[in-house]
Fold these 2 entries.
Entry 1:
Amino acid sequence: MHALRLPARLDSLEEFTRFARQAAVDATMPEDLLPRLDLVLEEVLVNIFSYAYPQGRGEAEVSCGSTDGAFRVVIRDSGVSHNPLTTPPPDLEADMENRQVGGLGVHLVKQMASAAHYARDNGQNVLTLDFSPRPA
Amino acid sequence: MEFESARKGDKTLVIVRGRMDAVTAPEFEKEIDTRLQAGDTVVVADLTDLEYISSAGLRSILTSGKKLKAAGGSLAFCGLDGMVQEVFSVSGFTAMFPVFDTAEDAVEG
């Protein structure tokens, strides 16, 4: 798996995304995976940039590659212990007046990835996301 | 992100182009604020040329929809395709907002 480590700030998002896209292309993943990959990276990384390091600066690392026909993305940070997968689901049935603004990012990550797993490992948050090619 | 607005009878069609992400999403809300200040409260957003949307974009859309509704107007969409269509659908936005196939349908609807 290739890895890229950058400062945990919004400026880094584009480079992380470009890196993961290239890895997906190199792994000959289907093209419709790319926007889903962009979306998942943005949702997870923007949360890390915003909340992982309340005391100051830190880094995030993205590694990716293919495993068993799926494309795997692992996102690590050394910030506050946080399992994003436990975020309560949004109320998708609410009408516009009662709909809460926000809370959709993690929901989108769960919808777009075919599998998601979180671990706290050695002082790091480790989020592993798999993308299976969808049937045509 | 780029916008192009035009009056169509009593509605305003806003063509949205580009990407609605964590960096650009507030621009949509700003565009709707501009429409509101111009007195346009019934807005149809044509997303045919929107390539990408994230939760930041959905947040901007929901906030804009609430503002238009509070002003006695509405927000509708047309031209949903690919990942934009998928994100709208899994987020419940296709159920929350009126969605039309084409700009012509939306302006007549």
Entry 2:
Amino acid sequence: MAGKRIVSLIPVIGEWAVQSYGFNRVRPVGRPEVAARHLCEWGADEIALVDIRASLEGRTVSEELIKRVASEIDIPLAAGGGIHDVQAAHDIVASGADKILVGSALFTGQAFISRAVDLLGGQALVVSLDYRVQPGKGPTLFHTSGSEQATFSPVDVFGLIKDLGIGEVVLHAIDRDGSLDGYDFSLLDLIRPDVSMPILMAGGAGSWSDVRQVLDDEAVSAAVVGNRFVHSEHSISRLKSRLIQDGKEVRRNPVTRVYESTAHPDDDRRSIVMSHDLFGN
Amino acid sequence: MEDLQIGIINYGAGNLFSVVRAIERAEMNAVVVDQPAQLDGLEMVILPGVGSFSTASERLRQSGFEAALGQRLQAGSIQILGICLGMQLFFEESEEGSAPGMGWMKGRVERIRRSPGVVLPHVGWKQVEWEEQSRPDIPVHPEESFYFDHSYSVRCAEESVLARVPLGPESLVAAVKAPGLLGVQFHPELSSAPGLAFLRSFLTSTPVLQ
């Protein structure tokens, strides 16, 4: 059976991986391609690489960085940050991203999104709905790195997402970002009756039980894990072992044997070659 | 093995990068094929899956790839691995647009039916159920998962089906074969070590394609 996905989010600013707190404080932590390689080895099901300041600073996520990250992994890569036109979407996919992640563009450039769906297919489009829970008002959408409040209600935006044919939706709770306090369900609860596409939950993962709780929700297809699980050794392997131990179906690390190739001794990219006689399990 | 050239058909927008990367990791040479003339000398090509059915099929037609690949298939001089939309294009038609497919295999592509518990697109890692008789001799453990990402699915004659994947109450076609053709709905190039093992196995020894 299918396990639900664990998506590793690597927030970046320019060429550097950062840890992000509440969308406003960041701490640089290292090279995104190194993090991506480790996360892939540890069993992440997908990598999301997002330049969290790109829209705010009028940039687009670095194509060179996408190339470097894509070269290190053999699982799907979603990339986002400042993607506002079809040319940028095309270039990012040509650089090695399998999906593009859009946020602000949903509020400022719907024509672009429908053209991108035509060009790349809806499955290649992921939208991130970033929100804050405001007292008395419930979940309220923001965009452009959380700096601008959206004029749409969550329910209206969800209708728009369906009409545009966007493949997947990330619900990202800004106040939980980097908090390790667990996921917020208030936006999911609001749009729950309308869910007909994969929903990815982001913001707040601090422990395996937070991830378990979110994956147990029928409406959720994937847990996005960030800070806590990007830069600690074997984080994803340990998370998945704990989930499996607890009876949760997630993809196990491949048993298909992987070994260092000797064919390209000068090439530090790891080659993967399988062998035909290694299935004693 | 390093001499084996695998052509990757470039028919427009999309991520050829991950297919090229996977071929190189499996220690074969990837050659991006931009025009039909470049097919000369290639015995094995990959038709990757990008974009929507009609756009892709029109591009293959207008660029001359449809005719060039069709002739080589008939002559038995080429083998084509179709990935995702690339596999769907083997068939006659699709609900995703009005342009006909390549028609190399009988069957059509339909939108996956919604039912309780089924969200579309169908995205994620799944174990593949190989048909009892035809489970290919590939060095991939049956419990390994492959990555799927699609909203449309092939319907075709049973004898063409090589593997299925369960989704809700249904099971979808996960792999098909015909002389010179192998199609997979999943993305071996994005499926970690099992995906690479699968690719290498099929591209270096071709028993199911005969």
